[in-house]
Amino acid sequence: MKKYLNKIKLFLSRNRLSLILMRIMQELRITDHDINLSYAQEGEDLILASYLLRQKHRGFYVDIGANHPKKFSNSYLYYLHGWQGIAIDPWPEAKELFARYRPDDIFINCGVANKDADLDYYCFKSSLMNTFSAEDAKSLESDPDEGCRLIEKKQIKVRKLKDILDEQRGFIAGRQIDFMSIDVEGGEMAVLESNDWSRYRPSFIAIEIHSFDLSRTNEFLVHNYLAEKGYELIAKTLLTAIYKYNPVDRSYFDERIRKIPDFPKEGILFYDVTTLFEDAAAFKLVIDRMAERYAGQKIDKIIGIDARGFLLASTLAYKLDAGISVVRKKGKLPFKTIGASYEKEYGPDIIEMHEDTIKPGETVVITDDLLATGGTIMAAVDLVERLGGKIAGIEFLVNLSFLPGYEKLKTRGYRANFLVGYDNEKV
């Protein structure tokens, strides 16, 4: 009897009536009430369901790297519940499968990248192995598994995500994207960078991040990028990280930063973070957000840059059980120092650190209130590197993205983390 019941369950799980019929079986006590169907590889759809299906009867999704309408699908469970969405995948055979099994969805047959191009696409016996990466394809071919047998190589078009979604404005029709699933075998950053986040910001993101380690989250570009966009990591399976957009944080911080025009001179908009520091709850949230990135890591020192960086460094050091080192203007430190010069708008300046404040090999985090042209932080990075410190992260309250500081750090191999970003000098 059990064998036949298992066959019935398997059949039901492959058909659109499965949810209704499974409930009937549960009511008849043929099967357990606690059973929940999952079509995802690791139950990602059920993790999202604990947030989404309890709150919304109908919703909308975007599934990038969808591959198959049912197998290992993060969105099929929602389709069965009457949701709609856009599925995107470069595998040519997927178009017919989606037309057959998910006719209410829009399927786009292309890849997603941060620039339009025609790229080589490697198709394997198991479509789950398909990839644009020649390196990955070569590695898979050496695998004896039958599913890793290369079938063909094709030229496939890749496009920017924002352009794809713009073309489907009529279908989206102002609906909020409740979740976005991204499974693109190493191309995650290209997908994220090709989106227009001001127009298409999903409430949840389920994204595959290879070798993602919760003890070193700040070392992963995808995690840092999503954190900068206001997303919070809420769950993780072996392969997939799930993020929730927290729209309160950025506006919450922004509202507590006073903007003062024409200070310290005409034409300059000054971002006064002391008003944020005065708010006990806001200041605590600042430190908590910064500390989250280093959970599980051994941080030896927090470096505070003169002067508001001292306030951040001291509280963050307490939170992370670390020591404090300071970067000061020339002539302010009493012991032997090393210095680094940098250019300011009115001429060169010098910052210094004690020569023994960091021991070679110590892991440090650098903090300051605001990233603008990048002169001070680049000089501080130079000092830390000369002392033999290993920089685990660089933390700011504010990033002025219309100035070059962020890009300067990026070219040096470092990524700045910040809580609030401004792309112009409007009050």
What does this structure look like?
The protein has helices at residues 2-13, 18-27, 44-52, 76-80, 94-101, 134-141, 161-167, 169-172, 188-193, 221-228, 247-255, 274-277, 280-292, 308-320, 375-386, 405-411, and strands at residues 60-64, 84-88, 106-108, 111-112, 117-124, 150-159, 179-182, 204-208, 231-236, 240-245, 258-261, 269-272, 301-305, 323-329, 337-344, 347-354, 363-371, 390-400, 416-422. It has three domains: 1-37, no CATH class; 38-245, Rossmann fold (3-Layer(aba) Sandwich), CATH 3.40.50; 255-422, Rossmann fold. It is built from 16 helices and 19 strands. The chain is an alpha/beta fold and 427 residues long. A seven-stranded mixed β-sheet has the order 3-2-1-7-8-10-9, with helices on both faces. Helices cover 32% and strands 27% of the residues. Helix 13 (280-292) crosses helix 14 (308-320).
Main beta-sheet strand count, sense and barrel state: 7 strands, mixed
Helix percent reads 25-40%
Second rung of CATH, namely the architecture of the largest domain: 3-Layer(aba) Sandwich
Q: Would you state the CATH class of the largest domain?
A: Alpha Beta
N- to C-terminal distance: 71 Å
How many whole angstroms does the radius of gyration measure?
Answer: 25 Å
List keywords for this structure.
427 residues; alpha/beta; Rossmann fold; 16 helices
Topology:
Blueprint: H1 2-13, H2 18-27, H3 44-52, E1 60-64, H4 76-80, E2 84-88, H5 94-101, E3 106-108, E4 111-112, E5 117-124, H6 134-141, E6 150-159, H7 161-167, H8 169-172, E7 179-182, H9 188-193, E8 204-208, H10 221-228, E9 231-236, E10 240-245, H11 247-255, E11 258-261, E12 269-272, H12 274-277, H13 280-292, E13 301-305, H14 308-320, E14 323-329, E15 337-344, E16 347-354, E17 363-371, H15 375-386, E18 390-400, H16 405-411, E19 416-422
Parallel strand pairs: 1-2, 1-7, 2-3, 4-6, 7-8, 13-14, 13-17, 17-18, 18-19
Antiparallel strand pairs: 5-6, 8-10, 9-10, 11-12, 14-16, 15-16
